[in-house]
């Protein structure tokens, strides 16, 4: 827990400074706009693809058939309030930037940091002192990340051991079919969809990427929080994969906030599971509604453990499924949360590599090195 708190301690100041430095380094607002549009389109596309895969797996395997729904009231379910697209977009703009930094509201922090970085680039030498301050503070945060990461092997071991010992075998066995569906869909998306997209757009070996990025993936698995992996992800992409920090410092924090492919997969399988368990037949229109709702719900979802269960209630409500069904999957969600967080951050990184490659900010020699 101490190790996890140390990682969370780094997130807000590191994201704030790295985004300011990244957007200032890109300089030209037209270039920054192109990078931003490419990144967001890619994220939304992969999220919609992820939930489509999940719905297909859930429909074929039918994990909810034969389930006893008598005991579903045993746990309390937190219901998410439905927000309109207008509210979602307006919530991105901070009314109080200091409050956004204090509360760790990542999308608002990102917007404010981008404004600061763009203005620093525009004013140039006039604000050299401020630019140097943020550059040096960013160096301090990177060095602090290196120091904290020295404790990573022990921290990761303790986090994983504690999770498995708390859940126990009695929690796994009744829900094995549902778990296998979610894990199978996650594997298809991570090793299939992402790898195909990376091979098509960059002509690089996706499995070499996964081997080099695996320490970040294992860290995401142990912590089940996308935000905590941001420092390590930026550092690994720079040192082992050859992605310029001016790209990764923009795409990685943004991805940790809006790109929740693993969460979308869990929600897709959970929709099929609940519909089958309660004998509710979903129409093709319902499936399209689930795809749209889950994709939009991923935008602004906090990168913290088990938040997907809260947004799942919104997805259930969109197609008339009983929200109480979420109680059936709450007990074993932690292990699935770990796996889907790993997929979330892998998608962020692969998108970053693709965007960096298209903008000439990828060092192929570093990527191809051992």
Can you describe what's shown?
- 76% of the residues lie in helices and 0% in strands.
- By secondary structure, it is mostly helical.
- Helix 10 (206-223) packs antiparallel against helix 17 (333-358), helix 13 crosses helix 15 (307-318) and helix 13 (261-277) packs across helix 17.
- The longest helix has 33 residues, at 29-61.
- It is globular and about 70 Å long.
- The two termini are 33 Å apart.
- The model is unreliable at 71-80 (pLDDT under 50).
Describe the structure in brief.
This protein has 370 residues and is mostly helical.
N-to-C series of helices and strands: HHHHHHHHHHHHHHHHHH
User: Nearest-angstrom radius of gyration?
Assistant: 20 Å
Strand content: under 5%
| Overall pLDDT metric | 80
Helix content: over 70%
Contiguous runs where pLDDT drops below 50 for at least 5 residues: 71-80
* Class from secondary-structure proportions: mainly alpha
Q: Based on DSSP secondary structure assignment, what is the total number of beta strands?
A: 0
State the helix count.
18
Q: Globular, elongated, flat, extended or rod-shaped: what is the shape?
A: globular
End-to-end CA span:
33 Å
- Largest sheet, described in full? none
């Amino acid at each position: 827990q101490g190790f996890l708190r140390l990682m969370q301690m780094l997130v807000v100041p590191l994201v704030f400074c790295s985004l300011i430095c990244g957007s200032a380094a890109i300089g030209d607002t037209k270039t920054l706009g192109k990078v931003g549009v490419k990144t967001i389109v890619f994220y939304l596309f992969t999220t919609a693809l992820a939930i489509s895969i999940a719905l297909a797996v859930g429909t074929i395997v039918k994990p909810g058939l034969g389930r006893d729904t008598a005991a579903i009231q045993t746990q309390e379910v937190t219901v998410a309030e439905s927000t309109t697209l207008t509210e979602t977009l307006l919530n991105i703009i901070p009314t109080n930037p200091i409050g956004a930094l204090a509360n760790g509201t990542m999308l608002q922090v990102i917007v404010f940091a981008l404004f600061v970085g763009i203005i620093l680039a525009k004013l140039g030498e006039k604000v050299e002192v401020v630019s140097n301050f943020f550059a040096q503070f960013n160096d301090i945060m990177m060095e602090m990340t290196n120091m904290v990461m020295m404790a990573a092997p022990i921290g990761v071991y303790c986090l994983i051991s504690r999770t498995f010992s708390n859940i126990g075998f009695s929690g796994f066995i009744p829900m094995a079919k549902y778990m296998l569906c979610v894990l199978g869909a996650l594997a298809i998306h991570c090793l299939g969809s992402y790898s195909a997209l990376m091979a098509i757009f960059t002509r690089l070996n996706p499995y070499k990427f996964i081997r080099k990025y695996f320490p970040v993936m294992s860290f995401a698995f142990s912590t089940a929080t996308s935000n905590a992996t941001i420092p390590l992800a930026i550092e690994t992409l720079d040192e082992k994969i050859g992605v310029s920090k001016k790209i990764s410092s923009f795409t990685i924090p943004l991805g940790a906030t809006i790109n929740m492919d693993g969460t979308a997969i869990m929600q897709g399988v959970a929709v099929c599971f609940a519909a089958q368990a309660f004998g509710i037949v979903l129409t093709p229109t319902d499936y399209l509604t689930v795809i749209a709702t889950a994709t939009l719900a991923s935008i602004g979802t906090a990168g913290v453990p088990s938040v997907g269960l809260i947004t799942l209630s919104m997805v259930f409500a969109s197609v008339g499924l009983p929200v109480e069904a979420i109680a059936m999957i709450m007990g074993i969600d932690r292990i699935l949360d770990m796996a889907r967080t790993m997929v979330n951050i892998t998608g962020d990184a692969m998108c970053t590599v693709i965007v960096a490659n298209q903008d000439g900010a990828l060092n192929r020699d570093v990527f191809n090195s051992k």
